[in-house]
Design brief:
This protein is mainly alpha-helical. Helices cover 79% and strands 0% of the residues. The protein has helices at residues 6-25, 28-46, 52-73, 76-87, 94-120, 122-131, 140-147. It is flat.
Length: 149
């Protein structure tokens, strides 16, 4: 059975309207998507733990903002890049741009997943910060906020 998440519903529901909006206002849609992504992550960093109603509401709002940001960014960023190449008479470079993007995106995912696994361990993260000269006391409750981002 398929389980459709709040983020997926928001993304699908906003995909067509955001595409039309991107055609009208251009790059501001991509900037707005980036701002929404910052807000959605900030919500998780500052949610007051120990208050189940606040935590649930925050996570729900996070998923809605995430879906909206994905819908706004979906395709608009690539269309903007392609239009820029086309304006500079370099549209034939587009396949190479996509290939480079895919390679760098894959490397970024590997790095993010590796770093995410490392951050999961509060003791290991505290040792690393100690080596870097930061004397910070971390506990699993604090790093829990890092894991969800």
């Amino acid at each position: 059975m398929w389980k459709i998440t709040t983020e997926c519903r928001t993304t699908v529901g906003c995909e067509v309207p955001s595409g039309a909006l991107a055609d009208i206002v251009g790059r501001r849609v991509v900037v707005t998507a980036g701002a929404l992504m910052v807000v959605e992550i900030a919500l998780l960093c500052f949610v007051p733990l120990g208050h189940p109603d606040w935590v649930f509401t925050t996570f729900l709002l996070n998923r809605i903002l995430s879906g909206l940001a994905e819908a706004l960014a979906s395709g608009a960023d690539e269309a903007l890049a392609y239009d820029t190449l086309k304006a500079h008479h370099r549209a034939t470079d587009w396949p190479q741009v996509l290939a480079t993007l895919m390679r760098r995106n894959s490397l970024a995912f590997v790095a993010a997943l590796t770093f995410g696994a490392f951050v999961y361990d509060a003791e290991a993260l505290q040792r690393l910060l100690g080596v870097l000269g930061w004397d910070v006391a971390l506990d699993p409750q604090t790093t829990l906020r890092f894991r969800f981002t």
